[in-house]
Structures are given as C-alpha cells and as structure tokens.
C-alpha cells in the first residue's frame, strides 16, 4: 500500500515557506529558488492533491481555503520535524544533547551533585535527566532505554550490560551512641543477635548484603523497619530504635556510631552500568568518561 504522503514532503516544506515568508517572491529568496520554479512546485503539489492551493490575487497569489488548511497542518508537522532534527544533531555534539543518569538514593546528598557539578562546568550545554531509585529499578531503565547511565550496586554480570566498578564500600555495624557495643572497635555479625534491625527495602543492594550477612551468622531475617533512605535508617538508629548494617560513612553526622565488622567483612561495590546493545551518543560518552575518571573518589563513601 502506498503512503498518502509519499513524495509530498518537499512541496509541503515549500508551502510552509510561502506562509512564513508572506509571499512566493520572499519564499523563493529565502529558499534560494527562482520564483517561477517555486510557483510551479506549489501548483504541482495542488495537482497531486486534486485541489488548488493558491490563486492569483492582483499581481501576486494567495492561498485558497484548502491551501490554508494544508499549510496549518504542514506547519505543525514541520515544527516537530525540526525539533527532532535539532535533537539528533545535539546528540552528536558532546557539548549539547541530553543524558539520563540513574543513581541510588544514598548517592543523592553528596556524590552525584559533586560529580555533576564538575561535568556541567565542562559541558554546560548538555541537559541532564535524573532518576533516583533502587538498583534494580535503574538497571531496568538502562535495559529498557529510558536511562543512559546508572550508578548502581550490585550490577549483575549480564551480556546486555556493560559495567565498570568504581568504588568498594565496606559495610559496618551502626549502633546508637549509648549502645552496649558502641565502644567496640570491631564486632561480629553474631554480636547483633537479639537486636531490632533497621534496614532498606528489598531491591536495594545493601538490603541484599544485609540479608546475606545475617543468614551466614544464623540470625533471623526479621526487621524492625524498612526504609528507602540510608539517612533515615541512620537517624532511627541514632534515636535508639535499633541497629543497622550500612556502608562506611553512611551514618556520618547522624549521631549513630559506626563499628567495623570482623574480617573478611562484606562490602558494597558501586559500578557504572550502560547498555551493551545501544550506541552511545556523544553527550552520553562524555558523561561516562567523566564518571569513570572522577567517580571512584566521589563514591568512596557515598
């Protein structure tokens, strides 16, 4: 089946040029086309559509009702096409275009703002979309094409994902300042037996690590509270509502006490992930290089 618009695009663009310029003479100058050539093109478009689009009006021409209707629709369509072309061209320019970065909640207060501040200084024309979610959510976004780059933990070894480890964060026990273990320099996971444990919701990497840690220690996987934010977990621990297992530095400033876990202690590995099946645009490549270069120190205690 032939498309109804097949072959009409050049004529439609010329018709819009006539409307925007105000006359065929001005449109011909704008397009760099002789006026008779442009007049014949508009007349040919009308014949192909089976109706007159322009009629003579004194020494010039004016659009017919059908011509005005077609020009109105063509103008809207051409506006969308121009926007699409501008977007595609911008994505070929490392100093323009758009990038979507996914990251974990724990990276929001310090690490990601610091990293993006440096990137914006070098690439002020790039617009950045942000998605702050659990690791499995941002990785699903990468696979679905909604997210270009993701800072996540853990990142599974899958053929459709590319990944690069950026930082390793040891996990620590977090207890209230007046807790019986607060003065210890190191504790075993078994030392947390009988304590109400506060943790993150399922889907977060730290929650999976906490589950595995308690399971190996023979402790029940029962939790007093589950949160989306490490800062909330640390604050509740500081208030005396329980204990937690978090990355080192996550409880800084909360009033809770961090204690090293007995060796070999678990750790959260933060990686940068992107799709192995899509070609990265220039701005995505630029942000990836920036994160690979500056991510390790910024994420060491994110």
Q: What secondary-structure arrangement, pairings included, does this model have?
A:
Elements: H1 9-21, H2 24-31, H3 35-49, E1 54-57, E2 60-63, H4 65-91, E3 98-103, H5 111-122, E4 127-132, H6 135-144, E5 149-152, E6 161-175, E7 186-187, E8 198-200, H7 205-216, E9 225-227, H8 230-238, E10 244-247, E11 257-261, E12 267-275, H9 282-299
Parallel strand pairs: 3-4, 3-5, 7-11, 8-9
Antiparallel strand pairs: 1-2, 5-12, 6-10, 6-11, 6-12
Helix pairs in contact: 1-2, 1-3, 1-4, 2-3, 5-9
Structure description:
Helices cover 41% and strands 22% of the residues. It has 302 residues and is of the alpha/beta class. The protein is rod-shaped, with a radius of gyration of 30 Å. The chain has helices at 9-21, 24-31, 35-49, 65-91, 111-122, 135-144, 205-216, 230-238, 282-299; strands spanning 54-57, 60-63, 98-103, 127-132, 149-152, 161-175, 186-187, 198-200, 225-227, 244-247, 257-261, 267-275. The two termini are 57 Å apart. The longest helix is centred in the N-terminal third of the chain and has 27 residues, at 65-91. The strands form three sheets. Strands 3, 4, 5, 6, 7, 10, 11 and 12 form an eight-stranded mixed sheet that branches. A two-stranded antiparallel sheet has the order 1-2. It has three domains: 9-91, Arc Repressor Mutant, subunit A; 98-166 and 269-299, Periplasmic binding protein-like II (D-Maltodextrin-Binding Protein, domain 2, 3-Layer(aba) Sandwich); 168-268, D-Maltodextrin-Binding Protein, domain 2 (3-Layer(aba) Sandwich), CATH 3.40.190. InterPro entries: LysR_HTH_N, LysR_subst-bd, WH-like_DNA-bd_sf, WH_DNA-bd_sf. Keywords: DNA-binding, Transcription, Transcription regulation. It comes from Jatrophihabitans endophyticus.
